[in-house]
Amino acid sequence: MQKMEIYRAFGKSGVEGFINYHLTPHRDNSVSKPYGRLVYALFVMILMLSALACSTTNEQLAFKDGDILFRGQLDGSLSQAIDAVTQTDSSHHYTHVGVVEVEQDTVWVLHAAPGKGVCKELLADFCRFGQDAVVVGHYRIRGIDSKAVDRALGLANSLLGQPYNYSYLMEDEGYYCSEFVYEVFSGDSIFQLAPMTFIDPSSDSFHDGWVQHYADLGIPVPEGKPGCNPNGMAANESLVFLRYLE
Q1: Low-confidence winner among 35-49, 107-121, 148-162, 170-184 (lowest mean pLDDT)
Q2: Does residue 185 surpass a pLDDT of 60?
Q3: Domain limits of the chain?
């Protein structure tokens, strides 16, 4: 390890302070050269191992093809309605989900969004930092191989331009966000469908937001129909949580 790398890892003052104290002979000449060399060798070894650990952590957190991003609660009645009836854990308040694709160090997110349909956006646009109160969770599928990821991203890109599925019925045209992610990984059975519910646990009746939503569409609330949602996906045991984006 070069000196500048050690300085960057631990700070120039910290490194020099250690060396000056432990490797410079005291007035009583209590530090011998062999002892000094041994301490220095051990210190450099510790620095190298620490820097390696930091490098490994950074690599693990770097975006990779096929990573999944869950976006937290946005302002708006539809997002609040989704969270109210699908929350599976106090730490999960996700209302949207997308898939990462990295192209020449540029991070893109493929997702299905109201008003946009299936689209491909830059990470910053997906996260919308500085606007609504948003939290984005970074997840990775445990043990998935590169062929499966390539297959999923190939399908995801082929679906660009498809309309948004406002009915949330799997058989209807288009895709809603979690349906899109479910579909692109369906060949590897990563996610499963479950009966949908639109009942607000706090009232044991249909959430007002969903009642209005389906009234506007002119169809009954599809209670019990197969589907998926961001909170349920985030709780999938096949996913590994990496971090919240800052």
Answers
A1: 35-49
A2: yes
A3: 3-61, 68-244
| pTM attached to this predicted model | 0.72
Q: Which helix (H) or strand (E) holds 110?
A: strand 106-113
Q: How many CB atoms lie within 10 A of CB 7?
A: 15
Both tokens assigned to 217: 């569409």
Helix (H, G, I), strand (E, B) or coil at 205: strand
Helix residue ranges, H only, 62-173: 77-86, 123-127, 146-158
User: How many residues in total does the chain contain?
Assistant: 246
Is the CB of residue 152 less than 8 Å from the CB of residue 184?
A: yes
Please, what CATH class does the domain formed by 68-244 belong to?
A: alpha beta
